[in-house]
């Protein structure tokens, strides 16, 4: 472990011995606090969705995206791109959701080469059930402790960082 001291700054431990100063050590520490906090709350909330709604995180992500899409369907390649899934991963996920009756494959009416994934009525119901579970958890574990103003500030900050100018349903 290295102890870093920059003129005019307080000494601070640098466990990896890689930071050039206290400011870098503090910046990395703050980043990891954000990262681990979001990772922990996200994991906890998605575990609740899986326990209560029977959907894994990727399944719920896909169903949520489809529920917000026009006519509750989207091209498979768009799903892959928007959700950060590989083409093979998207195909396997649609296969799994199709087998449970939550999603069905459809041919695009405008381009027969394009395959759409679309929500079934059972998929709409499963998405709604999981959304209630997640919203309840978010109110209790996220909005409750932070308050609406801080949540709004976080949303604005992450939109800025992501380069988004307007809201995104998924």
Automatic annotation (TrEMBL):
Domain HTH marR-type: start-end pairs: 24-163
Superkingdom of origin organism: Bacteria
Any GO BP annotation: response to stress
Signal peptide residues on this chain, from the entry's feature table: none
GO MF assignments: DNA-binding transcription factor activity
Record-linked PANTHER family: MARR FAMILY REGULATORY PROTEIN (PTHR33164:SF99), TRANSCRIPTIONAL REGULATOR, MARR FAMILY (PTHR33164)
Protein name as annotated: MarR family transcriptional regulator
Species, as recorded: Actinospica durhamensis
